[in-house]
Specification:
By secondary structure, this protein is of the alpha/beta class. 39% of the residues lie in helices and 25% in strands. It has one domain (10-54, 65-154). The protein has helices at 8-22, 69-79, 83-86, 106-123, 142-154, and strands spanning 28-29, 36-39, 42-45, 49-52, 56-63, 90-98, 127-134.
Length: 155
């Protein structure tokens, strides 16, 4: 019998869910139809967790395997004929890298910074993004991410 795999993504999101509910929002998550960006015959998940406010889509993506796909998909979708490209709401992305050591995902984070600098030039005020490094080590930006999230909900 296989041991049940811990869902570190869900564990990471618990505090964000509490904050959303404290502010009267119902967070959206999962792979269901209400959390999809439809694109032709395909779709992208619209965040591991999302809260829709009057002015923005506040989105959290948690990386447990590195990469920049969860950043670049928003650039792609904002340039295509999708519901978010037609929306007047700003996307506010909190991209959390769940690391297990100081150097974990270092090259992915460098690529993220470069890619985001290019995206900002193209997207202007349609999107905001910030990455956070969260781990069990002393470099832990979880508190910063929670604070940033709460401020985004209050706007």
């Amino acid at each position: 019998m296989k041991a049940k795999r811990a869902n570190s993504e869900q564990e990471m999101l618990k505090e964000f869910i509490k904050i959303a509910k404290k502010h009267g929002y119902k967070p959206i998550s999962g792979q269901g139809n209400d959390n999809r960006i439809e694109l032709e015959e395909n779709y992208f998940q619209f965040g591991d967790l999302r809260v829709d406010t009057q002015s923005s889509h506040v989105v959290i993506e948690v990386e447990t395997a590195g990469g920049v796909t969860n950043l670049v998909k928003y650039w792609y979708c904002l340039t295509k004929n999708t519901t978010i490209s037609k929306s007047k709401k700003t996307i506010v992305l909190l991209h959390i890298f769940n690391t297990s050591s100081e150097g974990d995902y270092g090259s992915h984070q460098l690529l993220w910074d470069f890619l985001w600098s290019q995206m900002k030039k193209d997207l202007g005020d349609r999107m905001q993004a910030k990455r956070f490094k969260v781990s069990g080590t002393e470099t832990n930006e979880l508190h910063d991410a929670l604070t940033y999230f709460e401020k985004a909900l209050e706007k």
